[in-house]
Amino acid sequence: MSSATPKLIKELRQRTGAGMLDCKNALNESLGDLDKAVTALRESGLAKAAKKSSNIAAEGLISILVNDDSSKATILELNSQTDFVAKNDNFIKLSKQILSHASLNDINNSDDLLSSNINGTNFSEFLNSNIATIGENIVARKLTTVKSKVVNAYVHSNGKVGVILGATCDDNIKDKVQVLLKNIAMHASAMKPSVISYKDLSDEFIQSENKAIVAEIETLNEELVRLKKPLKNIPDFVSKAQLTQEALDSVKKRFEDELKEQGKPEKIWNNIIPGKIQRYIIDNTQLDTRLALLSQSYVLDDKKSVEDAIKDIDDSIKVTDYIRFELGEGIEKKKEDFAAEVAAQINK
Question: From CA 316, how far away is CA 333, in angstroms rounded?
Fold first, then answer.
């Protein structure tokens, strides 16, 4: 009679994260003794760790640790092969252990993490030991530590996106800034800015995106013509970095000429032109609102930008650090044919 009952297999999977067939074999070999089965999986896993290292690990968890005085935060992307293992208690515990180690030792990147010692053991050996226990390839793919006057963070409930923000400010508003950064981190998790300010975008990138965005709007307008709907304005520029005083003076002159041609009295121009210029700035900074955190419309109050929301608290606040991790970003996942995999298992 098999010692591997469904109940025992489920419990062993929960304790180790190992595959169902591995759990079944280990329980049969240990005559249903859970502790012996865990040891057997660990020992056999150690022998398999090197083989597992080539397996693609694109699932896992994003986790963040903020220190007690909110002056330092560490973010980690720890990858597993399957979402099942990512939800396993052992994997979650491992993520917390690595985070604590990195924070206490001021480890700033994954390379330094891999060359560190944890609990008196080389990190690679420590990780291989956990691969043996959990039963899948595990990769500490990305890690960053941020230090600033005040930091705060947000991890989405599914553990797939995490954001850290750091800022400087006057001492007397640190508590308010801590709350603000939490909210802006939540905003950034959803809106995916790539930089803090439009000033962080390179001139070459802006010029390239200018052409792309214009082409995108022209294509959209072709469809709007077909649908007999109002057309979108074709921008001259896409970033505030391009809106020099000379450019703004030129567009102001253009609006004045248009109003004169329309026969509008000059005494009312000052009531009309500021609104037109504001609309022009919005149309001509579309790259900023897509990619620059401070320029984006704030999700908690879409009538203002993130920068405006910060200024509403205090002018002394300056965002100094922004880190956003998204689980598996940039990893080319292997396409699985589930039907073929099941068929292969049946035919074994």
Answer: 44
pLDDT above 50 (res 103): yes
Q: Are 99 and 74 in contact (CB under 8 A)?
A: yes
Domain layout of the chain by residue ranges? 6-52, 59-191, 198-313
CB atoms within 10 A of CB 116: 16
Burial of 60 (0-12, 13-18, 19+ CB in 10 A): buried
Percent of the chain with pLDDT over 90: 72
With respect to CATH, is domain 6-52 assigned 1.10.10.10?
A: no
pLDDT digit string, tens, across residues 235-277: 999 999 999 999 999 999 999 999 999 999 999 999 999 999 9
Distance CA 14, CA 29 (A): 19
**Residue type (1 letter), 121:** T
- What's the length of the chain? 348
102 contact partners, CB below 8 Å, separation of at least 6: 74, 76, 113, 143, 145
Fold of the domain built from segment(s) 59-191: Tetrahydropterin Synthase; Chain A (3.30.479)
